[in-house]
Amino acid sequence: MMKILKYGVILSFLIAIAVGVGGYAYWESLKTYGQTSLGQQGVVELTIPKGKNPKAVARMLQEKGLILDAERFYRYARHIAKEAHKIKAGEYVLEKSATPFEILKAIQSGKRKEIPFTVPEGSSKIDIVKIITKAGFANEMKLRALMEDPELIKEFGVPDRGADEQDTVPGGIEGYLFPDTYQFPKGTPAKTILKRMNARLKEVIDDEIKQRMKAMGWNLHKTLTLAAIIEKETGKSFERPHISSVFHNRMKRKMKMQTDPTVIYGIQGYDGNIRKKDLRAYHPYNTYRIKGLPPGPIASPGKAAIKAALWPDTTEDLFFVSRNDGTHIFCPTLECHNRNVRKWQVEYFRKKKARK
Predict the structure, then answer these.
(1) By the 8 A CB rule, do 173 and 274 touch?
(2) Which residue, 114, 178, 301, 332, could crosslink 183 as a Cys pair with Cβ 3.0–4.6 Å?
(3) Quick check: pTM over 0.90?
(4) What is the mean pLDDT of residues 197-216?
């Protein structure tokens, strides 16, 4: 009897050891599990409603293919990470390559899904309306109305009078929304978005730019007005300071700016062609009719164009014409310019028409 009892004790001891070893191995495997990715690519959108408990969230993760075993994830979150209680409702975009630990951390923020959009350099405020509307943040009509809000225009620092004492600024906040890539949670108010874009402009206008404006006797409005013209005149970054020099030289000589993008800005339903009647038509932005710069920016310039407006090349050039490849040829005299117009515009398009 004693022998049987002795064997029973030994067996119980061995079972306890086995259970302990097995338990230890299981917990260690959970630790490894937390750091192991499924190795997938791409992203998954996940919305966790309010009131969902950790087990239910784990099942959602399994259904989305982010994990293979909901129960195992729950046990890892509760017993190893000890953070199951930190999971929050929200809208998330999760990487398929994330480990359970990374997923668990991500779904603790309670953040709403952020929607990105990009405003290219040279975009007008109407372009920006379409971009923001397409991203799903606002109704187009309401956003256009918001951009005309006098309080918002004042808050953004648009002066009551335009550069060089022109009339009031018809474009309002045109040019005061910095072109960049932004992202906001779904449902963000349009006014919040516009304020962030204006705040970004103020970030870009650093001390170097401020000191340069002060040295030149220019204010931000005048700088943005010229920078927007430079932005619209060329898409080639290396040309911007040269383009800028032409306009600076014209201003020094009290010449009209005569820049086509300002004419286009005032044409309703522009079809891609500027006609003689457009050059003759009066509107506050037609630099073939008005003296000096227009009353405000015609688009949102990027930082490179802003710097080009303040740091022009040193040249004697007063004219430029397109080479029809995105670049321009420059001239200091009207005679030289007319030759280039004949070569690069009249003859170019005549030959092009003849080839058809």
Answers:
(1) no
(2) 114
(3) no
(4) 96
